[in-house]
Amino acid sequence: MVRHGGVEYWREELGMFPEPGATRPSYGTHRAVEDARELIDRLGFLPNTTRVRALGFPRLATRIQVAGGTKAFCRLHGLPQPPSRAQRDRDQN
After folding, report:
1. Quick one: the chain helix, strand, coil %, rounded to 5?
2. Considering the chain, what is the average pLDDT of its residues?
3. DSSP state of 77
4. CA proximity to 42, closest of 69, 60, 25
5. What are phi and psi of 79, to 5 degrees?
6. Does 75 score more than 90 pLDDT?
7. How far is 55 from 66, CA to CA, in rounded Å?
8. 82: helix, coil or strand?
9. What is each CA distance from 53 to 1, 12, 71, 72, 80, in whole angstroms?
């Protein structure tokens, strides 16, 4: 579809206009990092994508997956690394 004009082109061409408010603003890197920092401030670390989705951040979870996981996302954006399972176990005892 992209090679033939993309979704926006064909939507206009076919007269299919979205209803007001139906389109979402872009979720860029800046917004993803802001959301990640919010979760880190709240929880003390950035959790895995399943928990990120459950906490109401599905678009952030997708960005984390694309980056290669939570640790890779944190490394890529200079965020604190999530604790390892061994660290969490030590901290609980």
Report:
1. 60, 0, 40
2. 83
3. H
4. 60
5. -95, 155
6. yes
7. 19
8. coil
9. 29, 33, 16, 17, 19
Distance (Å, whole) CA 27 – CA 33: 10
CB atoms within 10 A of CB 52: 24
Q: Residue for token digits 């919010």?
A: 38
Q: Could you give the CA distance from residue 17 to residue 19 in angstroms, rounded to a whole number? A: 6
Structure tokens at 85: 């399972």
Tens-place pLDDT, residues 26-66: 788 999 999 999 999 999 999 999 999 999 999 999 999 99
Q: Integer distance in angstroms from the first to the last C-alpha of the chain? A: 55
CA 2 centroid distance within chain = 23
